[in-house]
From TrEMBL:
Keywords from the UniProt entry: Cell outer membrane, Membrane, Signal
Domain SusD-like N-terminal: 105-228
Membrane-traversing stretches: none
Chief location: membrane
Stretches assigned to the RagB/SusD domain: 291-537
The keyword Membrane appears for this protein: yes
Protein name according to UniProt: RagB/SusD family nutrient uptake outer membrane protein
Short name of any one Pfam family annotated for the protein: SusD_RagB
Cell location: Cell outer membrane
Signal peptide: 1-20
InterPro entries: SusD-like_N (IPR033985), SusD_RagB_dom (IPR012944), TPR-like_helical_dom_sf (IPR011990)
Family, similarity comment: Belongs to the SusD family.
Top-level division of the source organism's lineage: Bacteria
Length: 538
């Protein structure tokens, strides 16, 4: 589903600049880049606010990561239950079963055209600022710092898909014929824009009207992520370390609240409201028993469930349950993040004990391919809990408004841990990861070498589950072609007290190594005489 934002004339937007809830007014106004924007500071601020909507568009609640589908469905962690083609339906399954679907003619998890449209708008804004702004230097710098952060954010979306891309640095115009830059040059621009934002954004904004605006620490936190992708370990380490040492952020005590927003863990957040912008995440992934008949589009897999440790830090032996006639697994023995992320048989959701079974009243099972669409059923025996709003009961009548947390403090700790490991600072790597584990009372992991990285990968997968990181992590680690090839996902078919371990795919999932670098789209090749397709796609 494409998220549609209402675009109105500039005067109306300026009139509504002071939000009733004292949160940054994020109604976009990026259709005007002429002199009128610079007639007063409120107009320019409101124009920049339109760039903040990119956080939503590339989020799990938006459309630009994978046309609305969760990229976890391209891993072993998530299964869309529909075989009929469609976004959040059969398309994700088609991509994992038939990876040759990715071509230069189109790829649903590419964002080339949208990204360059956004970059054009930001460059136009920066160019018009240099031509028309009469504001004082400090105000211009704040506007430029925010814009350059978002330019880096969008170029990051391109870089993690393509490596080296076209860099449009001429603010006056985006030329039609421009050659591709190298991956190194692309990451240089991203780093340069982030460094400008870090140097010029405030640590905090003084006015309540600016609540939600970018800060120095949001830019540092994002840099810690981007530099891991660039394999600039020291830069990632330094950025994460500065956020940590600031003392401005902390893990919330209850993991279930980690993605709730407006707390000590949220570093970069996008807030919604009922009249817009809003999203429909609850409607998409709710069980049928929630009162909406077209939910349950995708559900967690047994492979994901088995990544969770027991509450004492040991691994559960799932072998006794990998058969046709098993008893109910002891889910209650698993650590808190499992219970906060997955609706499992026997848990309580919206006041009801979930069954997730054949003919279940609360959570109903259907076999994959039993019908074209899921209609609120589960094909794995589980439903998604994380990111869902359990207090949202009128799914047909009320839109979803829980915030999207683009970066939270737990990720920064994990980013530092990974960078420290790459820099042979194993003690610091262990310490940073163990802080994340301590929040859920898990014992420390003090392994070293390859075993530590294996432990770290699982920790990151569990801590950041369903936050849109796993697929891209496996790509940047160059492990997807190894672990996501010739495998199937599983779940449980529950009938009464009987648990049957089942294949929920019926065919092997695959990953093509050449898709680590997505192809340049045909539309760009046809209209740009200087562009050359990446070698693996010639």
């Amino acid at each position: 589903m494409k998220k549609i934002f209402k675009i109105t004339i500039l005067a109306a937007l300026v009139a509504g600049f002071s939000s009733c809830d004292d949160w940054l007014n994020l109604t976009p106004t990026d259709t005007l880049t002429s002199k009128v924007v610079w007639e007063d500071e409120a107009s320019a601020d409101l124009y920049v606010n339109g760039f903040y909507t990119y956080l939503s568009k590339y989020s799990q609640f938006g459309s630009l990561q994978f046309q609305g589908s969760l990229t976890e469905s391209l891993t072993d962690a998530f299964k869309y239950g529909s075989y009929a083609l469609g976004h959040k339906a059969g398309h994700p399954n088609n991509y994992v079963f038939n990876p040759t679907t990715v071509t230069s003619a189109g790829c649903f998890y590419d964002c080339w055209s949208d990204a360059y449209d956004e970059i054009r708008r930001m460059n136009q804004f920066l160019n018009s600022m240099k031509k028309f702004s009469k504001f004082d230097e400090a105000q211009n710098i704040k506007l430029e710092a925010q814009t350059r952060f978002f330019r880096a954010f969008v170029y990051f979306q391109l870089a993690k898909r393509h490596g080296g891309v076209i860099l449009h640095t001429d603010l006056a115009e985006m030329k039609k014929d421009v050659a591709c830059s190298t991956a190194e040059e692309t990451w240089n621009l991203i780093e340069s824009d982030l460094d400008y934002a870090i140097a010029n954004l405030p640590e905090a904004w003084p006015s309540s009207a600016d609540k939600g605006r970018l800060t120095k620490y949001a830019a540092l936190a994002f840099k810690s992520r981007a530099m891991l992708y660039a394999e600039r370990w020291q830069k990632a380490y330094d950025a994460a370390d500065e956020v940590i040492k600031s003392g401005k952020f902390a893990l919330v005590s209850d993991y279930a609240q980690a993605c709730a927003g407006n707390n000590s863990e949220a570093i970069l957040e996008f807030d919604y409201n009922k009249i817009g912008p809003y999203h429909l995440f609850d409607r998409d992934y709710c069980p049928l028993s929630d009162g909406y008949e077209f939910g349950g589009l995708g559900t967690p897999t047994q492979e994901m469930v088995e990544c969770y440790e027991k509450a004492d830090g040991t691994k559960m032996d799932w072998t006794p349950y990998h058969k046709a006639d098993a008893s109910r697994p002891p889910y209650e023995s698993l650590e808190p993040r499992f219970k906060a992320s997955i609706i499992y048989p026997g848990c309580t959701w919206k006041g009801h004990v979930m069954q997730n079974s054949v003919n279940g009243t609360y959570g109903m099972f259907m076999a994959y391919r039993a019908q074209p669409y899921t209609y609120g059923y589960t094909t794995t025996g589980y439903y998604l809990r994380k990111l869902m709003d359990e207090s949202h009961t009128d799914l047909k009548g009320v839109n979803s408004t829980q915030p999207w947390i683009e970066i939270r403090y737990a990720e920064v700790l994990l980013n530092k841990a990974e960078a420290a490991y790459r820099l042979n600072k194993i003690g610091e790597a262990q310490s940073a990861m163990n802080q994340v584990r301590a929040r859920v009372n898990l014992p420390e992991k003090n392994s070293t070498g390859d075993q530590w990285f294996k432990d770290y990968r699982n920790e990151r997968k569990v801590e950041l589950a369903y936050e849109g990181q796993l697929f891209w992590d496996m790509r940047r680690w160059k492990l997807a072609h190894i672990e996501y090839n010739n495998y199937r996902c599983h779940g449980f078919k529950i009938t009464g007290d009987k648990y049957e371990y089942i294949d929920v795919d019926y065919q092997d999932r695959k990953f093509l190594q050449k898709t680590y670098i997505l192809p340049i789209p045909d539309s760009e090749l046809q209209n740009n005489s200087l562009i050359v397709q990446y070698p693996d796609w010639l």
